[in-house]
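Lecture notes, unit on binding sites. The following record was shown on slide 14. It pairs a sequence with iron/sulfur cluster.
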Amino acid sequence: MEHNFEKIINGMYIDPLIFTTKFVKACDVCLCSGECCYYGVYTDKADYEKILAEKDKIIKYMDDSQTKDSGKWFEEPEIDNDFPSGIAVGTEVHNGKCVFLDKQGFCTLQKMAMAQGEFKWKYKPLYCILFPLVIFEGVLTIDDEHIDRMHFCSKSQNQSSTVFDCTINELKHVLGEQGFEELVRYKDEYFEGLKQEESEVEAA
Ligand code: SF4
Ligand code: SF4
C-alpha cells in the first residue's frame, strides 16, 4: 500500500495528525461511561486465544450485565492483514456494550489483570489499548470514525490536550521506548517544518 507519510517507526508509517489532533486530557469513565467500548473491538487471533484460555477467571470478574457464556463472547474469525497473525476476531456486543465491559464502564480484562497484580494491559486487545489511535493499513493514525461516535471525548469543549500528549504510554507500548524517542524527534522536526513553512508564507 502506497502512502504519503514520510516516517516509519517500528514498521509503521506515522501520521502526523497524532501530534495536532485535539483530545481529552485523560479518560474518565464517570463522565463518558466507557462508550468507546459500546461497539466491541477486533482482536488478533493470538489475543483471542489468550482471553479464552483465561475464561474461568474472567467470568469471576464479570457482573450481572455481562454474559458469562464464553461461546457468546466472539464473532467468527476473519482475514485482516492489520493484525500480526493475519486473522482478526471481533468481540460481541451484549446489553449494548462489548461483552467485556462491566456496568460501571470498566474493562473486565484490565480489571482482572490489575486485581491479579499483572501488567494492566496483559489481556486487553491492542486496539482497545490504542484508542484514540489506530493502526490502519500499516499507518499509526487517529481513529476519527470511532472518535466521531463519542459524546464526551469528541467534543471540542472537553479537548484540552492532543492525542499525542494523552497517549504517551500507549505510544511507548506500541513503538517501544526507542521507537517513542524517535517519534518525539520526528514530532519536533514536524513542528519545525510547519514553522518554517509559515514564515516562508509570511515572507512571500
Ligand atoms: S476514549 Fe473517550 S469514550 Fe473511551 S474511555 Fe476515554 S474518554 Fe471515555
Ligand atoms: S475488550 Fe475491554 S477495552 Fe476492549 S472494547 Fe471490550 S471492554 Fe472495551
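Take-home: Residues 8-29+130-194 form one domain.
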